[in-house]
User: Fold these one by one.
Assistant:
Number 1:
Amino acid sequence: MSNFYGEIDPPQRLLMGPGPINVHPRVLRAMGADMLGQFDPEMTEYMNQTMDLYRQVFMTQNRWTFLIDGSARAGIEAALTSLIEPGAKVLLIRSGRFGMLLGEIAERLGADIATIDLEWGQVATLAQIEAALAEHRPAVFAAIHGDTSTTTAQPLEGVGALCRKYDALSYVDATATLGGMPVRTDEWEIDVISAGLQKCMGGPPGSAPITISDRAAEFIFSRRKVESGIRRDDISDGTRPFIRSNYFDLAMVMDYWSEKRLNHHTEATSMLYAARECARLALEEGLENRFARHVAAGKAMAEGLRGLGLTLYGQDAYRMSNVTGVYIPEGVNGERVRARMRDEYQIEIGTAFGPLVGKIWRLGAMGYNAELHKVRLTLAALKAVLESEA
Amino acid sequence: MSNFYGEIDPPQRLLMGPGPINVHPRVLRAMGADMLGQFDPEMTEYMNQTMDLYRQVFMTQNRWTFLIDGSARAGIEAALTSLIEPGAKVLLIRSGRFGMLLGEIAERLGADIATIDLEWGQVATLAQIEAALAEHRPAVFAAIHGDTSTTTAQPLEGVGALCRKYDALSYVDATATLGGMPVRTDEWEIDVISAGLQKCMGGPPGSAPITISDRAAEFIFSRRKVESGIRRDDISDGTRPFIRSNYFDLAMVMDYWSEKRLNHHTEATSMLYAARECARLALEEGLENRFARHVAAGKAMAEGLRGLGLTLYGQDAYRMSNVTGVYIPEGVNGERVRARMRDEYQIEIGTAFGPLVGKIWRLGAMGYNAELHKVRLTLAALKAVLESEA
């Protein structure tokens, strides 16, 4: 029997977890615009504008700054698949779930993996990173900027320069920080950084902005493999082992986003509109203002949680400004509190992964939700629930 | 200098090419709904509804019917990456650009490729398919249902049964036909079929519905590899070589869409809303009514083009009902006609790929645009442009 269900009609919920979060209304409206042909001049102009806007968001001059069609994880995999040749040595920092994800992806790519393994929530020092680079001499170094699983941000100042000194290409996942904490691509000299929209950018999940340095692009183009169905005289295959994915072949994706306009996938038009509007909002606000807004909201959240007598997880010095971990008090059923927050106040707060399951909640204040009044509403609701659970 | 550009404001263009096409207004509106937490009960209920809706669209009882986050090509790659083990024998039909794409992806996966190679626009007979299955004994058979590059539909009746007879898993790409021509998953006994929204489903590109038979799912689960950061007692690794992609590991994606709710990517919420609404529209109309509407529009397009004195490309018997190829008349500049159609009438018609570049135009009438008045407008505009070019 057919059942068509009703119109989409989600509850109006305040999403104060580690993401996705509520989307700015201007971004939702931008997705209401109709399609364009893939190579219509207006479409390619929107693609070019989006590249320019994300150069500003990533604080970079990188020509190759565009979108991967898929979730933030698609951006990570596109970067690693294009950078890691089978058997290549890769150095990773693992101190949380998403650092472990880098290892999972690298393993599937057949990499020879070396790791800086730290307790969850710890950060690597420059000295640790240099020692590991010197010891392992990796072809690729990869790390997470802000790992929401531990609410911890890895400092990246100086990391890119070290990688260049040891002749490694560097990759950073900035999914949880782009638009909320500084992601200084050029200043940090990181070769490839990818992100998502659904955290501090205030957009929906499903599009992954990425930026690629010229030296990384040169390497990736050396792995290019052009589809035989669309071969052209002005584009040739590379000299190195080809990339083991078609969808994530960044050389083909760059040819698609370049003036060559070599057909690859069909760009996710509505998500492009969303990504473009997210960037416009961030740049109109001003990146530094936006970072300050996230700091203020994160600080209010941290102080408010401490004011409730709760103990924060992690180190103040390396805490992400946009998501705060807090220990579930002894004797309190963490999942019941989350359910009551949702059912009685229509507020979502986050659970945890791995060794932190059942130990901490994660409270986000990012993008459209990095606002003091939303932090106050969340704290007031949590206070009421905890008091009635006591 | 910062430049934020203006609001998104595409021209109101009638997209009568091979896709993307204009999106039904109800689908655009569905994307305006705000986010939900990934595991909020309302979100998982929407996911379950979407699975049920696409079972109906794919005409299948397959439990495993869900969405891949990415373009239609992401669906193809997810299927092939999960089905093809390194070194496995794969049999493909290649008679157009997208058949060649199957080969490109299989090559990157390290498959041992056998092909039924036909001239572009030809279809394989059951006898040809059986002979190739008997000769090559592939682990996986893959074909395109409707290849828009040639406007040709491969008949699939009986193909799945042949594959089972020779113990091959079967895959079909139905990107260009789902919702416009019958895709009879269960009747055809095809193991895995993937599609997109941007053709006959009347939605935006960026989400790939997929359906998977139990026997294919069993094989895929035997290649499962659970991320160490989220390992759980109730889910274990498989016994066969793991899938060479994390993002496209259908075993993990199925665990995410199942009641196990094992975290994988963050589902592209807005695209899920869009996909759900596309399916609701298709089912409310009735699939058979919808197929008839596409046949009527395609017939009107074909007859109208012939009425203009033009010669159709391809064979009437195997023509897709939703996209029609037509030879560019001698002495006519095909690209100038397309530009004039766009600039003077705001109508897009399609160019071509590979051996057909500069030889044919491709005119679509699909999804929201499979309407007689839109076909008539397109023909009237083309007539006017051709007359003034003469």
Note: Residues 25-282 of chain A form a domain with the Aspartate Aminotransferase; domain 2 fold (CATH 3.40.640.10).
Number 2:
Amino acid sequence: MAGANGSAAAEAAAHRVGAPTNPMATALLTDQYQFSMAYAYWKAGKHADRAVKNPFGGEFTVFAGLEECIKFIANFKFTEDDILFLQSVMPMCEDAFFDYLRKTDCSDVEVYSIPEGSVVFPKVPLMRVEGPVAVVQLLETPFVNLINYASLVTTNAARHRHVAGKSKVLLEFGLRRAQGPDGAISASKYCFMGGFDATSNVLAGNLFGIPLRGTHSHAYVSSYMSLDEIPDKSLKSKDGSRVCKNFVSLVKEWLQKIQLADSLCGVFGETNQSELAAFASYALAFPTNFLALVDTYDVMRSGIPNFCAVALALHDLGYKASGIRLDSGDLAYLSIEARKVFRTLEKEFNVPAFGKMIITASNDLNEETIDALNKQGHEVDSFGIGTYLVTCYSQAALGCVFKLVEINSRPRIKLSEDVAKVSIPCKKRCFRLYGKEGYPLVDIMMRESEPSPKAGERILCRHPFLESKRAYVVPQHVEELLQCYWPGTSNKPRVELPSLEEIRGRCMQQLEKLRPDHIRRLNPTPYKVSVSAKLYEFIHSLWLNEAPVIDSETKAAKHRYNIRTPCFME
Amino acid sequence: MAGANGSAAAEAAAHRVGAPTNPMATALLTDQYQFSMAYAYWKAGKHADRAVKNPFGGEFTVFAGLEECIKFIANFKFTEDDILFLQSVMPMCEDAFFDYLRKTDCSDVEVYSIPEGSVVFPKVPLMRVEGPVAVVQLLETPFVNLINYASLVTTNAARHRHVAGKSKVLLEFGLRRAQGPDGAISASKYCFMGGFDATSNVLAGNLFGIPLRGTHSHAYVSSYMSLDEIPDKSLKSKDGSRVCKNFVSLVKEWLQKIQLADSLCGVFGETNQSELAAFASYALAFPTNFLALVDTYDVMRSGIPNFCAVALALHDLGYKASGIRLDSGDLAYLSIEARKVFRTLEKEFNVPAFGKMIITASNDLNEETIDALNKQGHEVDSFGIGTYLVTCYSQAALGCVFKLVEINSRPRIKLSEDVAKVSIPCKKRCFRLYGKEGYPLVDIMMRESEPSPKAGERILCRHPFLESKRAYVVPQHVEELLQCYWPGTSNKPRVELPSLEEIRGRCMQQLEKLRPDHIRRLNPTPYKVSVSAKLYEFIHSLWLNEAPVIDSETKAAKHRYNIRTPCFME
């Protein structure tokens, strides 16, 4: 059972695969029925049969979660406590089965995968797992768990990036709305992968090196009553050359100047003094990073003038305020109004770049609201997105599943009454074919024994199920999709796990390379996924052999017929 | 800073509060802006001000997550590595601030909470946290994270239990669709709390003692080709008195008998032999727990007759098969047809209780589909529910928030342009008043200084915002809602954390005690939440004082007015 290089753990060490990010990702993290089946396979002597399984993506998806899967198998081992627990819940199983589990690791498993951060399409396998059937069965649940949410939220993040555009700053603020601590940590990691710039989650920043962002909340503003609450009012200038003894007085002077400014025609009256105190106090703590939440009381009547007074006072001392955050109200209107004030003050008081200060918006944003803001016109530079991003409101789960496609070199096909559950059988190689303009044209799946497609050579791409749909393609460039990330006992060269930054880069690059009509929000053109002529013939001969004869038109039989005319690709 | 009994850790040990379930629940699990604010408070010397904060539930909710919050504060401490990381991301902060963080724990924090598993209603605080403002600020994000999803999924589970009815078995199958490992573990824990009977998640079974369930998948069935693949065909009878040398032959005999049975009029023809092999092999491994997934090929033509043949063969040897699982197709129709066959065979072959075998259904079920099945009529005994349960499709996030309600004994109210964000200020006591029939009538919030309501004594309950809505209530029984779970340096008696089973019991009991019209699926009657006359006066005097004078009808000003006529309670 042990791999050529010794145990899986030794293998992991040799390849510097660390522990899974989540300490919960242990060998017990699987469905009970996987152990039931492992026992039944073991009992029948089938546990060492070699099985080949594929998880599939359901729609246009960014594939994520691979690194965690590889770390999972690298660390896959039952502790003695695990064994004792399993014995207690499965008392009917023979002792020798538990001895088998004690010795089980993933030395003998091989994992082939599309690189993490790739754009993937329905029916193309994301990953192929080969190994003893009992072990592969135990990996099914944790792999699907580690891939499903990861891919879903990365895809969601990429969609947000696409609608916001390249120039905007995207901040992930989902910690308090995710499924517990680790749901949140996954969200932060994979939103960054999908194109976000930073997170509010400090632990995720620590674990993955993701940039952190965050200033203050409404509660911070509410906690102040008056300017008297600031004990030390002195602030050193940025260059250290002088000390302003009473920064609060300076702020008050600026507030008066703003209120009297001709160019603003006296639009600002009394502002909230506790808010002013909170801003002044915050600026004293963070003179180099002053970004204020301006909607605790009233954005235009209090928040903006208070902020500007503090920002201009900071400017006197050589600092440059960062900007504001809006967390309620009409974000399009408020951002435009705020920008007007900033620009007016830039001119009025000759403060360079004051008009360009960052306006961050953060109130229950999602793809649709950002799209709506774009259509209305707005002056937001940076979006803070939480709930809709991390819970993936528009589609709260991804349908990735594991399919048994081959056992002991015999292809297997699962025929279900539900057509969406039918898989493409056998071990396959998958290629992405690129056209002249550099766009990917089509993905093609082939039998393992077939020669690879070559650049400049014509190849027939067939729809997997519809006989009439076929086309010849001459690719300019060919990319093999499935690569070896865990060679097990095979001597195949292994792809090293890239860094999170590299994966993020791949994701951004892949999305840019796609023909824009494939990723547009409205009525995107479906990307074509095809099979080779040989694989087409093979699938259809297998279907004819496997399908039991249906001899009547009963209700159940009708369900059964569906699988003969699937049309879920286009 | 240290508590009367020494450090928080010592306190935790004394009360046997263990580590949080999730190893990720460390002091760094918070939003960056909490540290920014902690620094700003510290810088302004306000960090030790005593703040009082409340998270609120947004709708009818089962409150969950308390135990994890208490464990979190019991273990709240920054490691030297945490400090180094924080210094690296906040280089602008003074060193003395990090010294302050090094010494920070939750000895000086007090937590009052509604017991976990309680049914709660909008506007009543679930929890009150009192302590130094900088520390309470750091707790906001993790508490909201630990409570939001926990309460959401517990509520969702309770709703599923309500629609399924008491007699059905509910199984949580969400591991592969949750937000990563810990999302899944939380889902398993809180679904059990909300009334589920078991989970498929082995690790959750191990961590929380939740019963485990699971048999086999479609892949297991697909992995077999023929009956020849079963090497050891012998099976000992249940009482150990004899050995059946060829169980497979016995199964085949039974299959023939079923096919020829008069009472079935030959409805069964050829069945799928690989499925038969998989069932026979599984029965040999689990003769005492034989439950088969019958829809891999064709439920009525293959799965049911194959299952019955194996079940009847087991019966010959003194075993009792458990039943079947349906994972596709028309679950109402198939369960009724399967039940008919079981009952017919019970009579035909005189096999007691064969008609009562368990029928489990598990295909993308949710509250609505179970309700639809109930209306159609079905024979399902047990529901396996995954995606819709754990992702909470119908509402993927709960709006629990933390509100600053008091600082240094001064009440604080947050006035937002968004009316839903307005809170009820000041430290409050909350009571549930019960009527003659034992149903809760109304929750009432009171000022801390007021005397508690008493059974048999008339008390005025007012709508918090509408002057005309008020009623006198004479409670038969009064329950104080907020109890002390973490006394900090106070000498208040502390409520011990109950076991998961006890919390589940409370949840079931509370739901049963509610007037049925409050929890019915369609147009439920809103439960009344009220304030005392004194609290009403206090809130409204505070509003008058806090609201800035609005002197024009600009757009922003209109937003601002909204808060004067909130009507979100009914």
Note: Chain B touches chain A through 134 residues (CB under 8 Å).
